[in-house]
Design goal:
signal, Porin_O/P, single chain, disordered N terminus, Porin, two-stranded antiparallel sheet, 16-stranded antiparallel β-barrel, globular, 7% helix, Porin_dom_sf, mainly beta
């Protein structure tokens, strides 16, 4: 808790000192490396209209609400010497308390599209997971992003391409922070933007991740449009040997409008035990989302290596307004195993003020089944965010 208080005090002091037109704070040049400091603090609140399951993270407190510090990220970055870049990040929030991107990048010939990364980084699957967290379109990421996105792992990655296309290959092990995600594997991702100009973008891509399942059991579960609530669907897959995920991704930009979609399917390879009560054979689950965003104030998006980049407000003092609508779905049922499925419609409004502040408000209508019982709650989510 003491570290958390120090984090918040440092963040506030940094925001006050930083100029409004700059998102990061330059520190010094150390050993030929231009060192800068970045941070992200997000405070969330959720209000539940429960149906069957009490979604409150603490069902015994008598409230249908959850409040918490979602992220408190502190990041040091360095450029140089030469073609080397490095990053050291940590999330000091109680829900995080883990290392973020912590790696060294070498750009061959100084080319931003031709580089090698060593350390911990996001693996090459899930376009939404690879996008910048501070510019999430909705408070909670899509169901398939949280379920199937591999996230950050220790390993090595090589990227090659241009502004219009890219291919990434990686090999990875466990997460840097102990007792979190583990299981070695590899990933591949490729994408192409046949239309790639200011205010006009069409991108499509494909990803594949294959990894070992340590411990022979993998848990698949998901919260309903909230990063703090109870899980609405939940299952343990026993006798698991390996897991592989295939993803399709695309986004289209026309001026202030953006359409974005992803489909992902995961297969768990299970070994036969010879016992009648032990499951065997592959277990397969899938899901998708489709979202639409409108920048009411007229700003557009960019294409950053196959992820949408959010532009800042054209009028920083007036800010930038966004309206969004998303439909996402996930189905964990497979044959006789019926742990559940969930569909969510989310409407949201976002307000970016200057370069450092963002407010978000979402309303989500959920339709789910849990152990064969229908469960249809509604959730209101709010987020206050500042970053530098």
């Amino acid at each position: 808790m003491k570290l958390l208080h120090c984090t918040l005090a440092l963040a506030v002091a940094t925001i006050i000192a930083a100029p409004a037109a700059k998102a990061e704070v330059a520190i010094d040049v150390v050993g030929g490396s231009e060192v800068s400091f970045e941070g992200l603090v997000q405070a969330d609140g959720y209000w539940y209209d429960n149906d069957q399951l009490n979604l409150d993270a603490d069902p015994g407190d008598g409230d249908d609400t959850d409040f918490g510090l979602r992220r408190a990220e502190l990041v040091l970055k360095g450029k140089g010497p030469g073609n080397i870049e490095w990053v050291l990040g940590y999330d000091a929030s109680t829900s995080g308390n883990k290392f973020l991107d912590t790696n060294i990048k070498y750009k061959f010939g100084g080319d931003k599209n031709n580089y090698l990364v060593l350390g911990q980084f996001k693996q090459p699957n899930s376009m939404e997971e690879l996008s910048s967290t501070k510019n999430n379109d909705f408070i909670s990421k899509a169901l398939i992003t949280n379920l199937y996105g591999t996230g950050r792992r220790l390993g090595a990655s090589y990227n090659y391409g241009s502004d219009d296309w890219q291919v990434t290959a990686s090999y990875f092990g466990r997460e840097l922070t102990r007792d979190l995600n583990h299981g070695s594997g590899y990933g591949l991702r490729g994408g192409w933007a046949p239309l790639n100009e200011s205010g006009k973008i069409f991108y499509m891509g494909l990803s594949y991740v294959n990894r070992d399942v340590d411990g022979d059991t993998i848990r698949l579960r998901s919260r309903p449009a909230s990063d703090l609530s109870q899980r609405l669907i939940d299952t343990n897959i026993r006798n698991a040997d390996r897991l592989w995920t295939t993803g399709l991704e695309s986004f289209f930009v026309s001026g202030p409008f953006k359409l974005q979609a992803e489909y992902m399917t995961t297969t768990v390879d299970r070994y036969e035990t010879g016992f009648a009560d032990e499951p065997g054979g592959d277990y397969t689950t899938d899901g998708y989302y489709v979202s639409a965003l409108w920048n009411v104030t007229g700003e557009t998006w960019s294409n950053k290596a196959g992820t949408p980049g959010t532009a800042g407000a054209e009028n920083p003092a007036g800010g930038m307004w966004q309206l969004g609508l998303r439909y996402d779905s996930v189905d964990l049922n497979d044959g006789v195993e019926q742990p559940g499925k969930m569909d969510i419609v989310t409407a949201g409004v976002n307000y970016y003020w200057r370069q450092n502040f963002k407010l978000m408000l979402d309303y989500s209508m959920i339709s789910g089944t849990r152990n064969g019982v229908n469960d249809d709650p509604n959730v209101i989510g709010a987020r206050a965010q500042f970053y530098w």
